[in-house]
Amino acid sequence: MIKSLYPKFYNWCQTGSIYIISDTHFDDFDCKYMNPNWIEPEEHMNIISSIVRKTDTLIHLGDVGNAEYLDVLRCHKVLLTGNHDILSKVGSHFDEIFNGPLFIADRILLSHEPIFGLEGFCMNIHGHCHGEKGVYKYNHINLASDVVNYTVFNLGSEIKYGMLSKIENYHRITIDRATENLICKDNSFKNVLTEAINLV
């Protein structure tokens, strides 16, 4: 169980792990233009199926390609649609579908394309950016298939190993700022509390 998730998403990890992929582009003709070493869908699925089990959840961050390849997986499948996805073609292959960015915890934002400007208080896990040299950039994790060597990302393990350790909870930021505003000029927060209690 990943306790930092919002309760709505607890079912994703009640029986197994949460894995994330993006930009599989199964059978898309332009993959070789993006990367001449792009692997075949069957090889890609072999990598995914060797890791993801039926008790797990697989989150796809969009640009699926031919979604029929994913039918061999018996796990719970979630899709955040990408710019190449047509719901009438991919929708029936997923258990849950979301259009647009999705906060799954107070510091974890999933999206297809990277979202800039929120780096101070969340980790943005996305795809879309092919040919990038690094998976991790300032509070962004790019999971485009060719960037992560066509494997899946284990969300629980990455959280356990400190993925969120440098990101302050935005509720904590708000509380700290409110506290700073209450502190008297002589830095006597205790006096402020005493006065507030005496007014009651």
Structural account:
Helices cover 24% and strands 17% of the residues. With 200 residues, it is an alpha/beta fold. The chain folds into 2 domains: 7-166, Metallo-dependent phosphatases (Purple Acid Phosphatase, chain A, domain 2, 4-Layer Sandwich), CATH 3.60.21; 168-200, no CATH class. The chain is globular, with a radius of gyration of 21 Å.
Low-confidence stretches: none
Identify the CATH class of the largest domain: Alpha Beta
- Beta strands, count: 10
CATH superfamily of the largest domain: Metallo-dependent phosphatases
Average pLDDT, to the nearest integer?
A: 86
The CATH architecture classification of the largest domain is 4-Layer Sandwich
Beta-strand proportion = 15-25%
Give structural attributes.
6 helices; 200 residues; Purple Acid Phosphatase, chain A, domain 2; 5-stranded mixed sheet; 10 strands; alpha/beta
Secondary-structure map:
Blueprint: E1 18-21, H1 31-34, H2 41-49, E2 57-60, E3 76-80, H3 87-90, E4 96-98, E5 102-105, E6 108-110, E7 123-126, E8 136-137, E9 140-142, E10 153-154, H4 155-160, H5 170-182, H6 189-199
Parallel strand pairs: 1-2, 2-3, 3-4, 6-7, 7-9
Antiparallel strand pairs: 1-10, 5-6, 8-9
Summarize the structure.
This protein is of the alpha/beta class and 200 residues long. Helices cover 24% and strands 17% of the residues.
